[in-house]
Every structure is written in structure tokens, then in C-alpha cells.
Amino acid sequence: MTIRVSGPAWIGSLVLMAILPVLVSLPPWLSEPMQFALMQMFDPFCHQISERSPHLHGVQLAVCHRCYGILIGLVTGPVAALICRSWRGRNARAFMIASLIPLALDWGLGVLHVWHNTPGSRFLTGALFGIMAGILVARALAWREISHTVR
After folding, report:
1. Is residue 1 a part of any domain in this protein?
2. Distance CA 97, CA 114 (A)
3. Position 114 in a domain
4. pLDDT number for residue 11
5. Number of structural domains, the chain?
6. pTM metric for this prediction
7. Cα–Cα distance measured from residue 71 to residue 143, given in angstroms and rounded to the nearest whole number
8. Considering only Cβ atoms within 10 Å of each terminal Cβ, which end of the chain, N or C, has fewer?
């Protein structure tokens, strides 16, 4: 299967995935009521603990470091899928699980006080998972478009 940058589903999902990191980065430039509304919008998806969240100009962004990494990875994943077109994805589930291992270790070892995770480790492990998820979304949309084209 070849991934093509075409089709409304593929382009629409990439645009949506690109909007999310922009949205979570907006609080420093919004009024307090708008900041509150944006924080409420992302509250169901992220714990938003202040000391575990990025800040810009002293204002907390709408998600934590790990969720920010996942959102950046979701945008980077489809680009990586285009670069790695030859990857067949036969073991997609295994790759997805493998991308969760560093994330789980960073979180779990931190909870057990074996490892002190940092903003950087949280962001990187989230980004790794996000990239893998973005690749799989791009491949699934490409497959969907190919299967619709064949009919």
C-alpha cells in the first residue's frame, strides 16, 4: 500500500491533528475567560497538573508535557509515514505496543520512585507514542481511500 497525500479524509485528519497542538498552545495569548474555556475543553483528556505542564510567558498550556508530545507526534506521524512508505505495517499492533513501553516505563518507574521522570522524558515518550499513532492513522486513512477507490 502506498500512502498518498490526497483525499479529503487524509488531508482533513492531518489538518485536525495539526490544529490540536496549536489550540493547546494558545492560552498565553488569550483572555482569562478564553483560557479557562480552552483549559476546560482539554480537561477530559489531560490531568493538566501545573508542575507537569509546559508554560509559555508564565501561562500554563492546556495539556501536560506528555500529552503535548503525543499531539506533536500525531502531526509528525503522517509525515513520517510518507517518508517510510516502504514499511508494510504488518506488525502495526506490535509497533503500537512497543511505543507504549517507554511511556509506561517513564510513568511507572516514576510512580515507584525508581526513576525521576522529567519534562523532557515525558515529552519524548509521549511524542514516540504520538508518532506511531499518527503513522497508523495515516496508513488507515490511506487504506480506506484505496478500498473506496477499488469499489
Report:
1. no
2. 22
3. yes
4. 76
5. 1
6. 0.84
7. 23
8. C
DSSP string computed for the chain? ----S-SHHHHHHHHHHHHHHHHHT-GGGS-HHHHHHHHHHHTTT----GGGS-EETTEE-SS-HHHHHHHHHHHHHHHHHHHTTT---TTHHHHHHHHHHHHHHHHHHHHTTSS---HHHHHHHHHHHHHHHHHHHHHHHHHHHHHHHH-
Containing structural domain, residue 18: 8-150
The pLDDT of residue 150 is 46
**Cell matching residue 78:** 503522517
Q: Which of 22-26, 49-53, 82-86, 141-145 has the lowest mean pLDDT?
A: 141-145
CA distance 70 to 58: 22
Neighbouring residues of 148: CB distance < 8 A, sequence distance ≥ 6? none
In a domain, residue 49? The reply is yes
CA–CA separation, 51 vs 143, rounded Å? 41
CA distance 42 to 25: 12
